[in-house]
Amino acid sequence: MRQTLADIWAGIGWERKIVAFFGGVLVLALTGPFGTYAEMGFAERLVFWLIVFTGVGFFMHVCLVTALGTPYLGRVPPVLRLGLGAGLAALPGAAVVIFVDGVFRPPLDSAGALPVIWLQVALVGWVLGIVEFHDFGKRAPAPEAPRRAAFCKRLPPELGQDIISISMQDHYAEVTTTQGTHLLLMRMSDAMRELEGAPGLQLHRSHYAMTAHLRKLHRDGARLRVRLSDGRDLPVSASHAEAVRRALRQERKM
Predict the structure, then answer these.
(1) Angle between helices 78-104 and 42-69 (to 10 degrees)
(2) Considering Cα of 245, then 248, then 191, then 176, what sign does the dihedral take?
(3) What is d(CA 155, CA 170) in angstroms, rounded to the nearest whole number?
């Protein structure tokens, strides 16, 4: 569960979200849509929209990110995934809107208002999700050159710099490139620190691989393993499985 929550909140782009959140709240508090301008003062409107934005936004973010990342919707286009996520998030989101509106403008709306408000919240969330998460077919910007020069200096020149994987063997890191293998006396944590920014990821506490050399994820009995470009299989721990799935999906798109 800890890994799932980390995936949901990772790479959130906090600066942009904070500006959008408070900017949206301020605009709504000033303009007072849905009758709030006539029935509430500015301070009440500000609190009203702060609560609504916080409640609905939380459910939207969790459901949209989960819908995009789950392997169970692997064959569903991203736009439809966002629609499914927005529809799911709109259920608790509509409840938040009805409850907050009932507190500020009693009496509380009947359950009959739920379908209409659910549809409104779902459509707005879907549109905002498309704007935020969909790339509209644009090519992703070229990644910065991997910062692995310090690590590659440790390898013999004849092995090249096209690293496939790193596996711990007692106190040694076994580095495999497309040209061969070499043992380095160092810890996995130090190797990963020197490879920070490189297009790779940790598979297991004792294994690391470059994403360009990942081929497929499969099970060997009860154990999860990933096939590499050189035909080897390395174990994948449960806490790193979802990150491996995302990396494989990303490689297939390129």
Answers:
(1) 150
(2) positive
(3) 19
Global pTM value:
0.49
d(CA 167, CA 199): 17
Question: Which CATH code is given to the segment(s) 149-253?
Answer: 2.40.50.1020
Asked whether the bond before 107 is cis by omega within 30 degrees of 0, the reply is yes
- Listing DSSP states for the chain in one string gives -HHHHHHHHTT--HHHHHHHHHHHHHHHHHH-TTTHHHHS-HHHHHHHHHHHHHHHHHHHHHHHHHHHH-GGGTTS-HHHHHHHHHHHHHHHHHHHHHHHHHHHSSSPPPGGGHHHHHHHHHHHHHHHHHHHH--TTPPPPPPPPP--HHHHTTS-GGG-S-EEEEEEETTEEEEEETTEEEEEES-HHHHHHHTTTSSEEEEETTEEEEGGGEEEEEEETTEEEEEETTS-EEE--GGGHHHHHHHHHHHHH-
Domain ranges of the chain: 2-133, 149-253
Report how far residue 84's alpha carbon sits from residue 70's, in angstroms, rounded to the nearest whole number: 12
Two tokens, residue 166: 């790193």
Q: How many CB atoms lie within 10 A of CB 71?
A: 12
pLDDT in tens, 210-221: 999 999 999 888
Please check the confidence at residue 124 and state whether its pLDDT lies above 50: yes
CA atoms within 13 A on the CB side of 204: 15
4-38 pLDDT tens trace: 444 444 444 566 678 777 887 898 889 988 788 88
